[in-house]
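Exam review. A common question shows you a sequence with its structure tokens and asks you to describe the fold in words. Practice with the pair below. Do the first one on your own.
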Amino acid sequence: MSSLPSGTHKARKRFGQNFLQNQMIIHQIVEAICPKKNEHLIEIGPGQGALTQPLLDAAEHLDVVEIDRDLVQQLKMQFAAKPGLKIYEGDALKFDFSTLKKDEKPLRLVGNLPYNISTPLLFHLLRFTPLIQDMHFMLQKEVADRLTAQQSEKNYGRLSIMTQYHCATEMMFYVGPEAFHPQPKVESAIVRLIPYRKPPFHCVSLARLEKIVCQAFSQRRKTLRKSLRHIISADELIRLDIDPGLRPENLSVKQFVIIANSCT
């Protein structure tokens, strides 16, 4: 994200860098987040600080996680007079976000997530949902559509189900390529994820749920009878009031949890 003079830092493809520079979009994002003083905000991938400045102005304290060491140095110089900013150099995919929890305040996560790692990063962040109040992310529109897709829609899949088990999801607004430098070849979107304090459906084993969902969608064109035959029989699915002739995208989150809970 860019607030420094153009040319100060060359975007690196290996980090999936596209810096946000449209001030109207930045204002919309900050307005959607509505940061307040004394909240614990964490920005993932601050880049050149386009969102960092308004977030820090509103909250007064901000933790950021940045993998690019050159940008870390730029941020240190840019915000040298802002003691409320703490910069952590590291890979968000491997970062233990629980180490940032210092008191009773829940974490509020924000970020323009690199397109090349957004899906594995989202799965990583789901591990920390008990500590998180909400998450606002800029994502590739395709990923945002998958996050918010509902049962039987074409984008509904593994990411939809596992995210929606943990969080209420909401599409906020779309962002065109022209809002970035360099311009990506895809549209982007802002999504809001609000972790449930108590999931609507209790799953005995999240690892088992993940395995079943992964197996089902690895062969998404096949019926449950075929894709899950090594995990659960068609007769058992019928006993659970689930039609084995359905495809995985036709099942709700609740139904996947029912299957997982039956496979003890």
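Now try the second one, then compare your answer with the model answer below.
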Amino acid sequence: MIGDYNYNGNYINLQTDKLAGGINACLGFVKVNNYYVPNNCIGY
């Protein structure tokens, strides 16, 4: 799955623009000078 990150809950403080991944792991990306660069990795 790939898409915009738009979570408004109180439990996760994730500063990212796009997410790519699935149920077990995902990567977050932020936009820097017209490019998306990874800024975090979540998995278990």
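Model answer, second protein: The radius of gyration is 10 Å. Residues 9 and 43 are 19 Å apart (CA to CA). Full marks require stating both points clearly.
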